[in-house]
Sequence to fold (132 residues):
Amino acid sequence: MFKTFSIRTNYRTDLIEITDTVYGFLKECKVQEGICVVYVPHTTAGLFINENADPDVVFDVKNFLERLVPWVGDYRHTEGNASAHIKSILTGNSLTIPIQNGRLSLGRWQGIFFAEFDGPRERKFYIKVLKG
Ligand code: ZN
Fold:
């Protein structure tokens, strides 16, 4: 079970929660036990799991990444978005989430986030659900 999803990002750096989208697809799949893989096929975007209860956490993550890898710096990449490539590596391109009793095994405070680092633009991510 595999599906491609589109997502519209609104800022250069935009961290968007996609937990409900992942849950929606899992319901369609009707898988009780297995693994859910979320994958981003981009070199300047990423994925992460972290707190979704307090929006200040994501705000702080965004600000920290901006300070850690500034947009303007001593980069060679002529396209001008080296910062976005580096942030994509830091967050990673895929997530693996166990499925148990028809639910994602996320902790109480965990949410799944799409991380845009060179927006705004139209992006996509894939979800693959494996039964087992
Ligand atoms: Zn580039």
User: Anything to note?
Assistant: Residues 77, 79, 81, 85 surround zinc ion (CB under 6 Å). The helical segments are 19-29, 55-68, 82-91. DSSP finds three helices and eight strands in the chain.
